[in-house]
Amino acid sequence: MANSVFYIIVQILVMVLLSPLIKGIIGKIKALSQKRQGPPLLQMYYDLYKLMKKDTVVSDTASWIFRITPYLTFTATLTASLFIPVTIYLAPLSFFGDIIMVIYLLALSRFFMTLAGLDTGSTFGGMGSSREMMISSLLEPALLVAVITVGLITGSGSVHGMMQAAAADSITVFQPSYLLTFMAIFIILIGEACRTPVDDPSTHLELTMVHEAMLLEYSGRYLALMELGAAVKELIFITLLANLYIPLEGLIEIASPALALAVSLVFYLLKVLVITVFIGLAEVFTVKLRLFSLPNLGALSFTLAFLGFVQHFMLGR
Amino acid sequence: MEYYLDSLSLLILISSFVLVANKRINSYIRTFRLQSFLLVILAGVIGMENFFSEGSLEIIVIALLILVLKVFYIPRLLQNTVNKVEYKVEKDFFLNIPIGVLICCALVMLVYYSVSSVIPADTGHTRIYLVNSISVVLIGMFFMISRKKAIGQIIGFLVLENGIFTTAMLTANGMPIIIELGMFIDLLTAVMIMGGLVFKINENFESIDINKLRNLRG
């Protein structure tokens, strides 16, 4: 019991404290590629701190949905993050099929976000909502297939079990079925985190925005919660990739549990850094796709996940 | 070691999926270059293995040849042709891209089915090699028939050839070097002639859209 409470504290601390940094790193990579200084690494922390102190303005026509959505979105995302352990050394909350739970918690938060976008009656909000639903309908099947494939390969129904099975193996990205699902989940990560080929996170241009369009009416504390929720969601996917596909825990033999925990957390930070650099590079080298080109990306990621499934099914590994 | 070859052949397959998902001629050429580079790595790895076990340099020579021809020379040739003909961004495919990608997925299923009827289960890595490389051949063929512009069809032909080469390389450690050389020279002349033809088609029809070739027949 005490162990599990400790796990929850570590998990929430890592998720909430680390996630704003991702945006900073990606921004820095982008700025360096353009020979700019760029915003400081900790910019998002400052932003969140400032937003927390500011007043919130709520439109007169907005209903209760608008007010509860920031809390609901943030809590649902944070709850989802509890099922994706940052380290396998603590006994996490896990049960058979909890990955489905994660996907549906994320879907719940997205559902309320789109409702809030529609709620204020601003034109941009509705546009953003309909786009977000379209993107999610493209990416969600791929995510389900990819995750179920990994479950089949590792023979486990929970994320913690999958991670343990992967850690008992060597680094799994190099194996065929893992490689396919890795690529599928990477594409999904870019879509879910509203990164460049799918959405442009740095503009508020009416023609291109998807995620920002839904948050347009939010201010102050509400906006801070929504932004933090989005960052945590991004970190959830990065954690999934890092701990499923690059498990370095099998490489070291450490007897003392406290030291093992510390080392695995350091490894976790390194892995998150590597994956973040990859996302940043994808952002540097690609341009935003037209909205109607997004089905191509969705079809590609679904196909990769499905091929991974077939490969595993046909070859048994 | 074996896993790396599995994954390399898989990466070649994935690059041909990426090719099918592309829309612009420039990105076709870039993806083809990437695929050829993966092929060079594959041939290099097998060549090294062969060199240390049997002391023959043949496959390494072939890898270097691919590097020169398919990674540098042919993409540049195609790029020059594209630069010379008037470049218009227009719809270049008969089927839309998601359907194209899903059809390619179905092609891979077909290959799985047919390969498992040829080779019984549990023959190790040969099956995965065969599936991946024959799928590349089929996807190249599909790419050829799904694009309207002549350049896309040349790229499809080259991808098909890459698939055949991968099949030979992975299942039989390559063909004798004299055959490989013959194939390369064939390929080179074919691409040069096709490049010239594209240029000619563009001159006569003011587009490289092959649908326009039906105008004023006779």
Question: How does the SSE layout of this entry go?
Answer:
The complex is a heterodimer of chains A (317) and B (218).
Chain A lengths: L1 H32 L9 H11 L10 H19 L15 H22 L3 H32 L4 H10 L7 H17 L18 H5 L4 H26 L11 H29 L8 H22 L2
Helix pairs in contact in A: 1-9, 1-10, 2-9, 3-4, 3-9, 4-5, 5-7, 5-11, 6-9, 7-9, 7-11, 9-10
Chain B lengths: L1 H20 L3 H30 L3 H27 L12 H22 L6 H22 L3 H23 L4 H29 L13
Helix pairs in contact in B: 1-2, 1-5, 2-3, 2-6, 3-7, 4-5, 5-6, 6-7
A few lines on this structure:
The complex is a heterodimer of chains A (317) and B (218). Chain A is mainly alpha-helical and 317 residues long.
What is the N-to-C succession of helices and strands of chain A?
HHHHHHHHHHH
Query: What does the main sheet of chain A amount to?
Result: none
Proportion of residues in extended strands of chain A: under 5%
Low-confidence stretches of chain A: none
Count the E strands of chain B.
0
Instruction: Give the structural class of chain A.
Output: mainly alpha
The count of domains of chain B is: 1
Largest chain interface and its two residue counts?
A: A-B, 21 and 25 residues
Average pLDDT metric of chain A: 88
- The percentage helix of chain B is over 70%
**Quick one: overall form of chain B?**
globular
Give the CA-CA distance, first to last residue of chain A.
Answer: 36 Å
The main pleated sheet of chain B reads as: none
Which consecutive residue ranges of chain B, at least 5 long each, have pLDDT under 50?
Answer: none
